[in-house]
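Table S2 (continued). Query chain:
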Amino acid sequence: MGQILVRKVDEAVLARIKVRAKANRRSTEAEVREILSAAVAPAGKRKSLVSLIGAGRSGRSQADIDTYVRGLRQEWDQ
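Corresponding output:
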């Protein structure tokens, strides 16, 4: 396995990664590995938005999902 060192990570970004890691019950390092793996996954192997949010099980419409994702993006940008 290779290793990388990322310097000068914005403190706010690191804080959000730590929150995400805790929510997923992973270490910060494991969460970063997951983020990197998902970012470079071939298009065919990426999870669909519906499966990530669970729309199939919850009965949410595409409009509900779009609104939810828009809200998450706005939170992320703050």
